[in-house]
DNA sequence: CGTGTTTGACCAGCGC
DNA sequence: GCGCTGGTCAAACACG
Protein backbone atom coordinates (compact mmCIF):
# COMPACT_ATOMS: atom_id res chain seq x y z
CA UNK A 1 0.00 0.00 0.00
CA UNK A 2 2.47 2.26 1.04
CA UNK A 3 4.11 3.46 -1.90
CA UNK A 4 7.70 4.06 -1.47
CA UNK A 5 8.01 7.63 -0.78
CA UNK A 6 9.65 9.59 -3.44
CA UNK A 7 12.92 11.09 -2.68
CA UNK A 8 12.38 13.97 -0.48
CA UNK A 9 12.09 17.15 -2.33
CA UNK A 10 13.13 19.85 -0.15
CA UNK A 11 12.66 23.50 0.17
CA UNK A 12 15.83 24.96 1.24
CA UNK A 13 14.93 27.57 3.66
CA UNK A 14 17.44 29.36 5.53
CA UNK A 15 16.47 31.52 8.34
CA UNK A 16 19.98 32.52 8.76
CA UNK A 17 20.62 34.47 5.77
CA UNK A 18 23.63 33.55 3.82
CA UNK A 19 23.33 36.50 1.65
CA UNK A 20 25.98 39.05 1.70
CA UNK A 21 23.77 41.11 3.84
CA UNK A 22 23.16 39.54 7.09
CA UNK A 23 20.47 41.88 7.94
CA UNK A 24 16.96 40.96 7.39
CA UNK A 25 14.46 43.19 5.90
CA UNK A 26 12.20 45.21 8.01
CA UNK A 27 9.25 43.58 9.57
CA UNK A 28 6.05 43.84 7.71
CA UNK A 29 3.24 43.80 10.12
CA UNK A 30 1.17 46.85 10.45
CA UNK A 31 1.17 46.84 14.18
CA UNK A 32 4.50 47.68 15.66
CA UNK A 33 6.36 44.46 16.07
CA UNK A 34 6.95 43.36 19.55
CA UNK A 35 10.61 43.82 19.58
CA UNK A 36 11.10 41.35 22.30
CA UNK A 37 9.95 38.55 20.07
CA UNK A 38 11.55 39.60 16.97
CA UNK A 39 15.21 39.71 17.32
CA UNK A 40 15.51 39.16 13.65
CA UNK A 41 13.98 42.38 12.69
CA UNK A 42 15.51 44.64 15.11
CA UNK A 43 18.63 44.66 13.24
CA UNK A 44 17.38 46.12 10.11
CA UNK A 45 14.36 47.97 11.02
CA UNK A 46 15.50 51.18 9.57
CA UNK A 47 12.23 52.14 8.18
CA UNK A 48 9.34 53.34 10.15
CA UNK A 49 6.39 51.10 10.17
CA UNK A 50 4.48 52.97 7.59
CA UNK A 51 7.36 52.83 5.29
CA UNK A 52 7.14 49.16 5.21
CA UNK A 53 4.16 49.18 3.06
CA UNK A 54 6.11 51.15 0.61
CA UNK A 55 8.84 48.70 0.73
CA UNK A 56 6.38 46.02 0.01
CA UNK A 57 4.72 47.73 -2.79
CA UNK A 58 8.02 48.57 -4.23
CA UNK A 59 8.99 45.04 -4.10
CA UNK A 60 5.89 44.02 -5.86
CA UNK A 61 6.62 46.23 -8.70
CA UNK A 62 10.09 45.29 -9.50
CA UNK A 63 11.52 46.62 -6.42
CA UNK A 64 13.20 49.74 -7.30
CA UNK A 65 15.82 50.36 -4.81
CA UNK A 66 15.73 54.00 -5.32
CA UNK A 67 12.38 54.19 -3.77
CA UNK A 68 13.42 52.86 -0.53
CA UNK A 69 16.16 55.18 0.34
CA UNK A 70 13.68 57.83 -0.35
CA UNK A 71 12.23 57.18 2.96
CA UNK A 72 15.50 57.44 4.59
CA UNK A 73 16.15 60.69 3.00
CA UNK A 74 13.07 62.10 4.38
CA UNK A 75 14.67 62.39 7.66
CA UNK A 76 17.67 63.92 6.20
CA UNK A 77 15.71 66.52 4.48
CA UNK A 78 14.33 67.58 7.71
CA UNK A 79 17.73 68.05 9.01
CA UNK A 80 18.74 69.84 5.93
CA UNK A 81 15.91 72.14 6.34
CA UNK A 82 17.08 72.94 9.70
CA UNK A 83 20.46 73.78 8.53
CA UNK A 84 19.27 75.94 5.75
CA UNK A 85 21.07 78.80 7.19
CA UNK A 86 24.24 76.96 7.57
CA UNK A 87 25.85 79.20 5.16
CA UNK A 88 25.74 81.99 7.52
CA UNK A 89 27.78 79.89 9.76
CA UNK A 90 30.35 79.60 7.13
CA UNK A 91 30.06 83.13 6.19
CA UNK A 92 31.63 84.75 9.01
CA UNK A 93 34.02 82.59 10.74
CA UNK A 94 33.84 84.49 13.89
CA UNK A 95 31.00 85.84 15.77
CA UNK A 96 31.47 88.15 18.60
CA UNK A 97 28.30 87.05 20.20
CA UNK A 98 28.78 83.98 22.40
CA UNK A 99 25.20 83.04 21.91
CA UNK A 100 25.62 83.07 18.23
CA UNK A 101 28.73 81.10 18.60
CA UNK A 102 26.92 78.47 20.48
CA UNK A 103 24.30 78.31 17.82
CA UNK A 104 26.94 77.88 15.22
CA UNK A 105 28.50 75.12 17.13
CA UNK A 106 25.24 73.41 17.25
CA UNK A 107 24.87 73.81 13.58
CA UNK A 108 28.25 72.37 13.06
CA UNK A 109 27.27 69.42 15.09
CA UNK A 110 24.09 69.06 13.16
CA UNK A 111 25.91 69.26 9.94
CA UNK A 112 28.29 66.60 11.02
CA UNK A 113 25.36 64.53 11.99
CA UNK A 114 23.82 65.20 8.67
CA UNK A 115 26.87 64.01 6.90
CA UNK A 116 27.00 60.97 8.99
CA UNK A 117 23.43 60.18 8.22
CA UNK A 118 23.99 60.83 4.60
CA UNK A 119 26.80 58.41 4.48
CA UNK A 120 24.72 55.89 6.27
CA UNK A 121 22.00 56.53 3.85
CA UNK A 122 24.36 55.76 1.04
CA UNK A 123 25.45 52.68 2.77
CA UNK A 124 21.90 51.57 3.15
CA UNK A 125 21.30 52.32 -0.46
CA UNK A 126 24.15 50.09 -1.39
CA UNK A 127 22.83 47.39 0.79
CA UNK A 128 19.47 47.72 -0.73
CA UNK A 129 20.89 47.54 -4.18
CA UNK A 130 22.75 44.48 -3.33
CA UNK A 131 19.74 42.86 -1.84
CA UNK A 132 17.77 43.80 -4.87
CA UNK A 133 20.27 42.31 -7.19
CA UNK A 134 20.32 39.19 -5.14
CA UNK A 135 16.63 39.06 -5.33
CA UNK A 136 16.64 39.47 -9.04
CA UNK A 137 19.19 36.79 -9.42
CA UNK A 138 17.15 34.46 -7.34
CA UNK A 139 14.06 35.28 -9.19
CA UNK A 140 15.70 34.51 -12.46
CA UNK A 141 16.88 31.24 -11.11
CA UNK A 142 13.48 30.53 -9.82
CA UNK A 143 11.84 31.26 -13.10
CA UNK A 144 14.30 29.17 -14.93
CA UNK A 145 13.74 26.34 -12.58
CA UNK A 146 10.04 26.63 -12.91
CA UNK A 147 10.13 26.56 -16.62
CA UNK A 148 12.34 23.59 -16.55
CA UNK A 149 10.04 21.83 -14.20
CA UNK A 150 7.08 22.79 -16.19
CA UNK A 151 8.36 21.11 -19.25
CA UNK A 152 9.35 18.09 -17.35
CA UNK A 153 6.17 17.76 -15.48
CA UNK A 154 3.97 18.10 -18.40
CA UNK A 155 5.56 15.11 -19.87
CA UNK A 156 5.56 13.21 -16.69
CA UNK A 157 2.55 14.08 -14.72
CA UNK A 158 2.38 11.26 -12.35
CA UNK A 159 5.86 10.49 -12.14
CA UNK A 160 5.58 10.67 -8.48
CA UNK A 161 3.39 7.75 -8.39
CA UNK A 162 5.56 4.85 -7.69
CA UNK A 163 3.29 2.08 -8.54
CA UNK A 164 1.95 3.78 -11.52
CA UNK A 165 -1.34 2.14 -10.96
CA UNK A 166 -3.04 5.37 -10.85
CA UNK A 167 -1.27 6.62 -13.81
CA UNK A 168 -4.32 6.38 -15.86
CA UNK A 169 -5.99 9.32 -14.53
CA UNK A 170 -3.22 11.57 -14.86
CA UNK A 171 -5.12 14.62 -14.04
CA UNK A 172 -7.00 15.70 -11.22
CA UNK A 173 -9.80 13.95 -12.73
CA UNK A 174 -9.87 10.35 -12.14
CA UNK A 175 -7.44 10.47 -9.47
CA UNK A 176 -9.90 11.16 -6.92
CA UNK A 177 -11.13 7.92 -5.80
CA UNK A 178 -8.18 5.96 -6.62
CA UNK A 179 -5.56 7.73 -4.98
CA UNK A 180 -4.05 5.25 -2.85
CA UNK A 181 -0.65 5.76 -4.00
CA UNK A 182 -0.92 8.88 -5.75
CA UNK A 183 1.10 11.54 -4.46
CA UNK A 184 1.27 15.13 -4.14
CA UNK A 185 0.26 16.00 -7.55
CA UNK A 186 -3.27 15.21 -7.18
CA UNK A 187 -3.56 16.86 -3.98
CA UNK A 188 -2.47 20.08 -5.27
CA UNK A 189 -4.46 20.09 -8.25
CA UNK A 190 -7.67 19.95 -6.58
CA UNK A 191 -6.90 22.82 -4.46
CA UNK A 192 -8.45 26.02 -5.06
CA UNK A 193 -6.84 29.26 -4.92
CA UNK A 194 -6.03 30.31 -1.61
CA UNK A 195 -7.00 33.77 -2.13
CA UNK A 196 -10.45 32.71 -2.51
CA UNK A 197 -10.86 31.47 0.82
CA UNK A 198 -13.21 34.17 1.27
CA UNK A 199 -15.79 31.83 0.14
CA UNK A 200 -14.95 29.45 2.72
CA UNK A 201 -15.15 31.88 5.35
CA UNK A 202 -18.39 33.16 4.27
CA UNK A 203 -19.86 29.79 4.04
CA UNK A 204 -18.25 28.57 7.12
CA UNK A 205 -19.11 31.45 9.20
CA UNK A 206 -22.64 31.24 8.19
CA UNK A 207 -22.94 27.60 8.73
CA UNK A 208 -20.61 27.09 11.55
CA UNK A 209 -20.52 30.36 13.23
CA UNK A 210 -22.63 29.09 15.91
CA UNK A 211 -22.59 25.61 16.83
CA UNK A 212 -26.28 25.36 16.92
CA UNK A 213 -26.53 26.37 13.38
CA UNK A 214 -24.41 23.74 12.07
CA UNK A 215 -26.50 22.58 9.33
CA UNK A 216 -26.76 19.08 8.44
CA UNK A 217 -28.38 19.97 5.29
CA UNK A 218 -26.86 18.67 2.15
CA UNK A 219 -25.65 22.03 1.22
CA UNK A 220 -23.52 22.26 4.15
CA UNK A 221 -22.52 18.76 4.05
CA UNK A 222 -20.82 19.48 0.89
CA UNK A 223 -18.44 21.59 2.68
CA UNK A 224 -18.17 19.69 5.75
CA UNK A 225 -18.37 16.43 4.13
CA UNK A 226 -15.56 17.11 1.91
CA UNK A 227 -13.44 17.54 4.90
CA UNK A 228 -14.70 14.55 6.54
CA UNK A 229 -13.32 11.93 4.50
CA UNK A 230 -10.04 11.18 5.80
CA UNK A 231 -8.63 7.87 5.54
CA UNK A 232 -7.41 6.37 8.69
CA UNK A 233 -4.02 7.07 7.55
CA UNK A 234 -4.78 10.57 7.38
CA UNK A 235 -4.75 10.64 11.02
CA UNK A 236 -1.17 10.10 10.68
CA UNK A 237 -0.90 13.21 8.79
CA UNK A 238 -2.64 15.17 11.35
CA UNK A 239 -1.38 13.55 14.32
CA UNK A 240 1.45 11.36 14.04
CA UNK A 241 2.50 11.56 10.60
CA UNK A 242 2.95 8.04 10.54
CA UNK A 243 2.69 6.67 7.49
CA UNK A 244 1.12 5.10 5.02
CA UNK A 245 -1.26 6.36 3.21
CA UNK A 246 -3.78 4.93 1.43
CA UNK A 247 -5.07 8.10 0.93
CA UNK A 248 -8.46 8.49 0.09
CA UNK A 249 -9.07 11.78 -1.20
CA UNK A 250 -12.36 13.20 -0.56
CA UNK A 251 -14.42 13.24 -3.53
CA UNK A 252 -12.76 15.62 -5.76
CA UNK A 253 -14.22 14.73 -8.98
CA UNK A 254 -13.03 17.48 -10.97
CA UNK A 255 -14.65 16.20 -13.99
CA UNK A 256 -18.02 17.30 -12.92
CA UNK A 257 -19.40 20.73 -13.09
CA UNK A 258 -19.04 20.90 -9.41
CA UNK A 259 -15.41 21.19 -9.81
CA UNK A 260 -15.42 24.71 -8.75
CA UNK A 261 -17.40 24.10 -5.66
CA UNK A 262 -15.26 21.31 -4.65
CA UNK A 263 -12.27 23.30 -5.30
CA UNK A 264 -13.50 25.87 -2.95
CA UNK A 265 -14.24 23.33 -0.38
CA UNK A 266 -10.84 21.92 -0.82
CA UNK A 267 -9.25 25.22 -0.46
CA UNK A 268 -10.50 25.45 2.93
CA UNK A 269 -9.02 22.15 3.60
CA UNK A 270 -5.50 23.07 2.96
CA UNK A 271 -3.73 22.44 6.16
CA UNK A 272 -0.61 23.48 7.78
CA UNK A 273 0.79 21.23 10.36
CA UNK A 274 3.33 22.36 12.84
CA UNK A 275 5.41 19.89 14.70
CA UNK A 276 7.13 21.22 17.72
CA UNK A 277 8.54 19.84 20.85
CA UNK A 278 6.48 20.91 23.73
CA UNK A 279 5.38 19.50 26.94
CA UNK A 280 2.57 21.90 27.05
CA UNK A 281 -0.77 20.75 25.81
CA UNK A 282 -0.76 23.34 23.14
CA UNK A 283 1.72 25.46 21.38
CA UNK A 284 1.57 29.16 21.66
CA UNK A 285 0.09 30.74 18.66
CA UNK A 286 -1.50 33.79 20.09
CA UNK A 287 -5.03 32.92 19.15
CA UNK A 288 -7.91 31.97 21.33
CA UNK A 289 -9.21 28.54 20.86
CA UNK A 290 -12.13 26.66 22.11
CA UNK A 291 -12.06 22.99 22.27
CA UNK A 292 -15.02 21.39 20.67
CA UNK A 293 -14.09 17.82 20.58
CA UNK A 294 -11.61 15.16 21.27
CA UNK A 295 -11.19 11.79 19.76
CA UNK A 296 -8.94 8.91 19.78
CA UNK A 297 -7.39 8.60 16.42
CA UNK A 298 -6.44 5.36 14.96
CA UNK A 299 -2.81 4.57 15.21
CA UNK A 300 -2.10 7.01 17.96
CA UNK A 301 -2.63 6.38 21.63
CA UNK A 302 -2.83 10.05 22.23
CA UNK A 303 -6.16 11.70 21.79
CA UNK A 304 -6.63 14.28 19.18
CA UNK A 305 -8.18 17.50 20.31
CA UNK A 306 -10.23 19.72 18.09
CA UNK A 307 -10.21 23.43 18.54
CA UNK A 308 -11.81 26.29 16.78
CA UNK A 309 -10.79 29.87 16.82
CA UNK A 310 -12.91 32.00 19.09
CA UNK A 311 -11.33 35.30 18.48
CA UNK A 312 -14.13 36.22 16.19
CA UNK A 313 -17.56 34.95 15.72
CA UNK A 314 -17.64 32.59 12.86
CA UNK A 315 -13.95 32.40 12.37
CA UNK A 316 -13.50 29.27 10.30
CA UNK A 317 -10.09 28.45 11.56
CA UNK A 318 -9.72 25.17 13.33
CA UNK A 319 -6.87 23.28 14.59
CA UNK A 320 -6.16 19.83 15.73
CA UNK A 321 -3.69 19.08 18.39
CA UNK A 322 -2.21 15.73 18.93
CA UNK A 323 0.93 14.30 20.28
CA UNK A 324 3.11 12.31 18.05
CA UNK A 325 2.71 8.65 18.61
CA UNK A 326 6.37 7.98 18.23
CA UNK A 327 7.56 10.76 20.37
CA UNK A 328 5.15 12.21 22.79
CA UNK A 329 7.24 15.21 23.34
CA UNK A 330 6.32 16.31 19.91
CA UNK A 331 3.16 18.21 19.61
CA UNK A 332 1.52 18.28 16.26
CA UNK A 333 -0.76 21.17 15.64
CA UNK A 334 -2.61 21.31 12.40
CA UNK A 335 -4.31 24.44 11.28
CA UNK A 336 -7.05 24.67 8.80
CA UNK A 337 -8.76 27.69 7.38
CA UNK A 338 -8.05 31.34 7.49
CA UNK A 339 -8.93 33.80 10.11
CA UNK A 340 -11.57 36.28 9.20
CA UNK A 341 -10.51 38.80 11.74
CA UNK A 342 -7.48 40.79 12.67
CA UNK A 343 -4.98 39.03 14.77
CA UNK A 344 -3.03 40.24 17.70
CA UNK A 345 0.67 40.56 17.11
CA UNK A 346 1.26 37.49 19.12
CA UNK A 347 -0.81 35.50 16.73
CA UNK A 348 0.47 37.08 13.63
CA UNK A 349 3.58 35.12 13.25
CA UNK A 350 2.03 31.75 13.43
CA UNK A 351 -1.03 32.74 11.54
CA UNK A 352 1.02 34.30 8.83
CA UNK A 353 3.19 31.32 8.57
CA UNK A 354 0.43 28.84 8.41
CA UNK A 355 -1.79 30.77 6.15
CA UNK A 356 1.04 31.55 3.86
CA UNK A 357 1.98 27.98 3.66
CA UNK A 358 -1.56 26.95 3.07
CA UNK A 359 -2.17 29.51 0.50
CA UNK A 360 1.00 28.76 -1.24
CA UNK A 361 -0.10 25.24 -1.46
CA UNK A 362 -3.43 26.23 -2.77
CA UNK A 363 -2.29 28.82 -5.14
CA UNK A 364 0.35 26.58 -6.48
CA UNK A 365 -2.12 23.95 -7.20
CA UNK A 366 -4.62 26.18 -8.69
CA UNK A 367 -2.51 28.13 -10.91
CA UNK A 368 -2.14 25.35 -13.28
CA UNK A 369 -4.69 23.51 -15.17
CA UNK A 370 -2.75 20.47 -14.48
CA UNK A 371 -2.49 19.99 -10.84
CA UNK A 372 0.01 17.33 -11.24
CA UNK A 373 2.32 19.67 -12.73
CA UNK A 374 1.91 22.00 -9.90
CA UNK A 375 2.50 19.43 -7.42
CA UNK A 376 5.60 18.52 -9.05
CA UNK A 377 6.44 22.05 -9.31
CA UNK A 378 6.13 22.56 -5.67
CA UNK A 379 7.83 19.41 -4.81
CA UNK A 380 10.58 19.78 -7.20
CA UNK A 381 11.25 23.32 -6.63
CA UNK A 382 12.53 22.18 -3.42
CA UNK A 383 16.05 21.42 -3.67
CA UNK A 384 17.24 18.29 -2.18
CA UNK A 385 18.56 18.69 1.24
CA UNK A 386 19.30 16.59 4.10
CA UNK A 387 17.07 17.73 6.80
CA UNK A 388 13.43 18.21 6.48
CA UNK A 389 11.70 20.83 8.42
CA UNK A 390 8.72 21.26 6.27
CA UNK A 391 6.88 18.83 4.17
CA UNK A 392 4.14 18.89 1.73
CA UNK A 393 1.88 16.06 2.36
CA UNK A 394 0.90 14.14 -0.61
CA UNK A 395 -0.75 11.43 1.23
CA UNK A 396 -3.32 13.34 3.06
CA UNK A 397 -6.63 13.85 1.45
CA UNK A 398 -6.01 17.48 1.81
CA UNK A 399 -2.93 19.31 0.92
CA UNK A 400 -0.89 19.71 3.98
CA UNK A 401 2.25 21.55 4.66
CA UNK A 402 4.12 20.36 7.64
CA UNK A 403 6.52 22.62 9.37
CA UNK A 404 8.70 20.46 11.40
CA UNK A 405 10.27 22.43 14.15
CA UNK A 406 11.44 19.43 15.96
CA UNK A 407 14.35 18.94 13.74
CA UNK A 408 16.01 22.15 14.36
CA UNK A 409 18.04 20.79 17.13
CA UNK A 410 18.30 17.30 15.92
CA UNK A 411 16.77 15.86 12.88
CA UNK A 412 15.68 12.58 14.03
CA UNK A 413 12.02 12.40 14.03
CA UNK A 414 9.98 11.01 11.46
CA UNK A 415 10.97 11.63 8.15
CA UNK A 416 7.96 12.52 6.38
CA UNK A 417 5.88 9.54 5.89
CA UNK A 418 5.30 8.20 2.54
CA UNK A 419 3.96 10.79 0.38
CA UNK A 420 5.47 13.60 2.22
CA UNK A 421 7.93 15.76 0.58
CA UNK A 422 10.31 17.26 2.94
CA UNK A 423 10.89 20.87 2.65
CA UNK A 424 13.98 21.52 4.56
CA UNK A 425 14.85 24.90 5.72
CA UNK A 426 18.32 24.05 4.97
CA UNK A 427 20.78 26.33 6.42
CA UNK A 428 22.61 26.39 3.22
CA UNK A 429 19.89 27.90 1.24
CA UNK A 430 19.14 31.50 0.89
CA UNK A 431 16.25 32.77 2.83
CA UNK A 432 14.41 33.74 -0.24
CA UNK A 433 13.79 30.23 -1.07
CA UNK A 434 11.15 29.60 1.43
CA UNK A 435 9.19 32.58 0.54
CA UNK A 436 9.28 31.41 -2.96
CA UNK A 437 7.44 28.44 -1.91
CA UNK A 438 5.01 30.01 0.40
CA UNK A 439 5.27 33.51 -0.69
CA UNK A 440 2.39 33.68 -2.98
CA UNK A 441 0.01 33.78 -0.20
CA UNK A 442 1.85 36.62 1.19
CA UNK A 443 0.78 38.72 -1.58
CA UNK A 444 -2.63 39.16 -0.21
CA UNK A 445 -1.68 38.55 3.20
CA UNK A 446 -0.34 41.87 4.01
CA UNK A 447 -3.74 43.22 3.63
CA UNK A 448 -5.19 41.81 6.69
CA UNK A 449 -3.21 40.61 9.51
CA UNK A 450 -1.69 38.20 7.21
CA UNK A 451 -4.62 35.96 7.41
CA UNK A 452 -7.51 37.82 6.18
CA UNK A 453 -8.56 36.48 2.93
CA UNK A 454 -9.50 38.98 0.41
CA UNK A 455 -13.07 39.49 -0.23
CA UNK A 456 -12.81 38.82 -3.82
CA UNK A 457 -16.10 40.13 -4.67
CA UNK A 458 -15.64 43.41 -3.06
CA UNK A 459 -12.08 44.08 -3.77
CA UNK A 460 -10.65 43.00 -7.01
CA UNK A 461 -7.38 41.93 -5.75
CA UNK A 462 -4.41 41.94 -7.94
CA UNK A 463 -3.68 38.32 -8.10
CA UNK A 464 -6.74 36.25 -8.50
CA UNK A 465 -4.91 33.03 -8.60
CA UNK A 466 -7.91 30.95 -9.16
CA UNK A 467 -8.03 31.89 -12.71
CA UNK A 468 -4.45 32.57 -13.15
CA UNK A 469 -2.37 30.37 -15.23
CA UNK A 470 0.63 28.82 -13.87
CA UNK A 471 2.71 31.69 -14.94
CA UNK A 472 0.70 33.95 -12.82
CA UNK A 473 1.57 31.95 -9.89
CA UNK A 474 5.11 32.32 -10.79
CA UNK A 475 4.88 35.98 -11.07
CA UNK A 476 2.94 36.09 -7.92
CA UNK A 477 5.60 34.05 -6.33
CA UNK A 478 8.07 36.46 -7.67
CA UNK A 479 6.20 39.28 -6.16
CA UNK A 480 6.01 37.34 -3.01
CA UNK A 481 9.67 36.93 -3.04
CA UNK A 482 10.03 40.59 -3.09
CA UNK A 483 7.95 40.85 -0.05
CA UNK A 484 9.24 37.76 1.47
CA UNK A 485 11.24 39.44 4.13
CA UNK A 486 7.99 39.73 5.85
CA UNK A 487 7.36 36.16 5.47
CA UNK A 488 10.75 35.24 6.63
CA UNK A 489 10.36 37.46 9.55
CA UNK A 490 7.02 36.03 10.37
CA UNK A 491 8.25 32.56 9.93
CA UNK A 492 11.29 33.19 11.95
CA UNK A 493 9.23 34.69 14.64
CA UNK A 494 6.83 31.88 14.58
CA UNK A 495 9.56 29.40 14.85
CA UNK A 496 11.29 31.31 17.46
CA UNK A 497 8.19 31.59 19.48
CA UNK A 498 7.44 28.01 18.93
CA UNK A 499 10.78 26.78 19.82
CA UNK A 500 11.00 29.11 22.67
CA UNK A 501 7.45 28.48 23.53
CA UNK A 502 7.96 24.87 23.91
CA UNK A 503 10.23 25.62 26.71
CA UNK A 504 8.35 28.39 28.26
CA UNK A 505 4.84 27.55 27.69
CA UNK A 506 4.32 26.26 31.06
CA UNK A 507 5.25 29.49 32.56
CA UNK A 508 3.60 31.52 29.94
CA UNK A 509 0.42 29.73 29.91
CA UNK A 510 0.86 29.51 26.21
CA UNK A 511 1.03 33.16 25.92
CA UNK A 512 -2.50 33.03 24.84
CA UNK A 513 -5.46 34.18 26.61
CA UNK A 514 -6.60 32.37 29.61
CA UNK A 515 -8.63 30.36 27.27
CA UNK A 516 -5.58 28.69 26.15
CA UNK A 517 -4.46 27.95 29.55
CA UNK A 518 -7.64 26.36 30.37
CA UNK A 519 -7.71 24.56 27.21
CA UNK A 520 -4.30 23.33 27.67
CA UNK A 521 -4.85 22.15 31.08
CA UNK A 522 -7.77 20.12 30.11
CA UNK A 523 -7.41 19.35 26.57
CA UNK A 524 -5.13 16.49 26.82
CA UNK A 525 -6.84 13.53 27.90
C1' DC B 1 -23.95 32.74 36.21
C1' DG B 2 -21.08 32.78 32.27
C1' DT B 3 -17.64 30.46 29.91
C1' DG B 4 -15.14 26.65 28.51
C1' DT B 5 -14.34 21.53 28.64
C1' DT B 6 -15.74 16.77 28.53
C1' DT B 7 -17.69 13.12 26.29
C1' DG B 8 -21.11 10.24 24.19
C1' DA B 9 -23.75 10.45 20.13
C1' DC B 10 -24.38 11.53 15.53
C1' DC B 11 -23.24 12.15 10.64
C1' DA B 12 -20.99 11.22 6.33
C1' DG B 13 -17.68 8.96 3.28
C1' DC B 14 -15.18 5.05 2.05
C1' DG B 15 -13.71 0.08 1.87
C1' DC B 16 -15.08 -4.41 2.00
C1' DG C 1 -25.34 -2.80 3.47
C1' DC C 2 -22.27 -2.85 7.23
C1' DG C 3 -18.50 -1.39 9.75
C1' DC C 4 -14.85 1.75 10.44
C1' DT C 5 -13.16 6.24 10.92
C1' DG C 6 -12.79 11.30 11.17
C1' DG C 7 -15.12 15.22 12.37
C1' DT C 8 -18.65 17.68 14.79
C1' DC C 9 -22.51 18.54 17.87
C1' DA C 10 -24.48 19.45 22.18
C1' DA C 11 -25.94 18.21 26.84
C1' DA C 12 -23.76 17.73 31.04
C1' DC C 13 -20.30 19.17 33.79
C1' DA C 14 -16.50 21.99 35.96
C1' DC C 15 -14.51 26.18 37.16
C1' DG C 16 -13.87 31.01 38.51
From TrEMBL:
Stretches with biased composition (Polar residues): 223-234, 508-525
Coiled coil: 100-134
Listed PROSITE patterns: WRKY
Residue ranges of domain WRKY in the record: 278-344
One MF annotation (Gene Ontology) recorded for this entry: sequence-specific DNA binding
One Pfam family from the record: WRKY
UniProt KW Kinase keyword: no
Compositional bias of kind Low complexity: 171-180, 235-256
Stretch list, region Disordered: 1-39, 154-180, 196-277, 454-473, 501-525
Name assigned to this protein: WRKY domain-containing protein
UniProt xrefs under PANTHER family: WRKY DOMAIN-CONTAINING PROTEIN, WRKY TRANSCRIPTION FACTOR 36-RELATED
Database matches in InterPro entries: WRKY_dom, WRKY_dom_sf, WRKY_plant
SMART domains with a match to the protein in the record: WRKY
Recorded GO CC terms: nucleus
Subcellular location: Nucleus
Keywords on record: Coiled coil, DNA-binding, Nucleus, Transcription, Transcription regulation
Extent of the signal sequence: none
Ranges of Pro residues composition bias in the record: 1-10, 23-36
